[in-house]
Request: fold
Amino acid sequence: MNNIVKMQIISLKYSFNKIFLLLTCLLFIFLMLIFFNCKTETSKFKESDVFRYNEHKNIGSLDPAFSKDLADIWATNQLFNGLVQMDDSLNVESCIAKSWLISANGLEYIFNLRNDVTFHKHIGFGIDSTRTVTASDFEYSFNRLLDKNVASPGRWVLNKVENFKAVNDSTFVINLKQPFPAFLGLLTMKYCSVVPKEIVEIYGSDFRSNPIGTGPFKFKLWEENVKLVFRRNQNYFEKDSNNNNLPYLEAVAITFLPDKQSEFLQFAQGNIDFVSGLDASYKDEILTADGKLRANYSKHVNMIRGPYLNTEYLAFYMESEVSEIQSKNMRKAINFGFDRINMMTYLRNGIGIPAHGGFIPKGLPGYSESIGYTYKPEKAKELLKESGIQNPTITITTTSNYLSFCEYIQRELQKVGFNVNVDVIPASTLKEAKANGKLNFFRASWVADYPDAENYLSLYYSKNFAPNGPNYTHYNNATFDSLYQQSYLETDIKTRETLYTKMDSIVMQDAPVVTLFYDEVVRFTRKEVSGLGINPTNLLDLKHVKKLE
Reply:
């Protein structure tokens, strides 16, 4: 190789190195600008103007049509509204629809819309402009939910709908295939939020990160896995009871620390304003054994707790060939054979309600505290003897998160005569196996999709066998099915509630499940935070939140 070629190669390498160095510097400057923008976006306000929380599970989409997980629902609830909404007592109340009428046969719903609701400003409406929401926007939004090309996980919400249409700008009509008293509750889900056609068409699938809604806050900045910022919507249509504009806060800042322990440390240091839930990594740090705030936290922290529409349970696969599963006496013996009160005290510091009622959780109409099982070890032994099964052996399949519960039950049941094994598998494996009838006895939970007991009882309707429905136990009872179908046609609230309790009682007597506990929503906030309520769906609503300076 001659000297000229060598010099050219050296020159090229030098040029490449300069270009690489330049690109690296530009990338660093770009990232610093993003960080600076993210930092300064909220630092321009007083600390009392900004509500800060962490989302350790990350956020997948800010498009309400994809609000499947709680993390996404919390975020989209600040940005979007629907026809109706739910208060903290699970009452459906007006939102963009100021009123509605339901036909006598329960099939037609006529919604009358407000005329003062506008979308967040966007150049897609014109320079620094917006427009008023009309019934046609709901027609578009609902059709989008049904669009197979969009592939929204919320499509099922409209399964019971025959058709819908915008009659005029202020009237939206929905017709059902058959009466469904819980339908208004379904419409409170974020899937049913209104979105503007022209903006969705600008962004397509990128609407997930460029959301334009009508909510109390508007989207400002999202650096995925780092920080998400919302700003106050100055033109929000709702007001408080004193006719003051909502929301009170100027901004919401969300960080994405990946684990609960780091999240709690930031909370303890005052860097975020609240944490939700009770995690094993910090439960003994903040709570006493009986569920009270420890003295070193009570001066700076408030704890809010209340019923959560989540039933934790063990389930039997009723078509199993295992004799222990087929025996009703055996299934009842397991229900009587362990102390749920002690379980909650030792493993959850008293947070959660021992499930002595049915499958319907406390907090929902239809719940009854008298139809389930309490701790009766002698009764469990008696039922074991009556079953005629010698040396009964069962295996509980669970995930690592619930291993402590299953080991507790294992020890308790061994005292009354069971041989109990615990098998730990990944969550994804358990989900697939329970859907396809591959597990005889497994841990599960059911969080309400909508706040009506029918949602829980659907797990025992014979036409809902998994994998095509939520009946993972393959429970089949003709009397139950008949009552379930009757409840669909019943429009009287009290009569329907009585039917729900009766159905739940039938399930408990047949014992296809072992109810463990009804969960509770637990929220820890800094003392300076007020107006953060609590509700059985664990929905985060920030429009009434204030912070003291």
Residues 311 and 446 are 5 Å apart (CA to CA).
